[in-house]
Design a protein that fits this description.
single chain, mainly alpha, 6 helices
Length: about 210
């Protein structure tokens, strides 16, 4: 009988603690999940991934057309750019997963059919248009959110796209020459082998690791 007051007191303490915990849980500010915090950045990285995926497929297709037209120099460039786009897609997709998101590549892609010069013109126009429309905004949003890693990946993507446009413009002007292309296996930066640097100025990867397209 002497244990009854003790048991009653213990039950009272436990029930009070439970009520206090419920009240605290209900009234404290809700903490956002990692995915919610980076929702905007994940969306920008996802959009970049999708652009890169589509362009890699287009460039592989355009390379086949250039080869059939005996435009071997242009075909090499398209092949090199296709690899570059795939590498950047992979980098951004990895960043999405690290931020708690998920990336699914586009299931259906419509490839354009035309002459090599037409494909070059179309690709140059697309690169310049998308750079003006969204890429800088994506970089600034990542910086504003404090995600320097995402900002770096998006900066690499934008810079490489402008280099691609410059290389394609050179081919379009028929100043192709005979040269090989090198692609940095980490960031996708593209080089002409004649002017290859000992390391990538973007990510500092050794030039000995570059992938060569001959």
């Amino acid at each position: 009988m002497k244990l009854r007051p003790f048991i009653i007191l213990l039950l009272f303490v436990v029930s009070t603690a439970i009520l206090v915990w419920i009240y605290y849980s209900a009234t404290r500010p809700r903490q956002q999940s990692v995915k919610e915090v980076w929702r905007e950045t994940i969306a920008d990285l996802d959009a970049c991934c999708r652009r890169k995926h589509v362009k890699s497929m287009q460039y592989d297709h355009f390379a086949g057309i250039a080869e059939r037209e005996s435009r071997r120099q242009v075909a090499r460039l398209f092949r090199a750019m296709a690899l570059s786009e795939r590498l950047q897609e992979t980098n951004c997709a990895d960043a999405i997963r690290q931020l708690g998101g998920e990336y699914l590549p586009p299931r259906r892609i419509v490839v354009f059919r035309g002459t090599t010069d037409g494909n070059l013109e179309r690709s140059i126009a697309y690169e310049l248009r998308t750079t003006e429309e969204c890429k800088c905004d994506e970089i600034f949003r990542a910086i504003d959110r404090g995600n320097r890693y995402a900002a770096r990946l998006l900066s690499w993507a934008s810079s490489v796209d402008m280099r691609h446009a410059a290389f394609m413009s050179s081919c379009l002007q028929h100043s192709e020459g005979e040269c090989n292309y090198l692609v940095c296996p980490r960031c996708g930066n593209l080089f002409v082998s004649t002017y290859c640097e000992p390391y990538c100025p973007f990510c500092l990867t050794s030039g000995q690791r570059f992938v060569r397209f001959e």
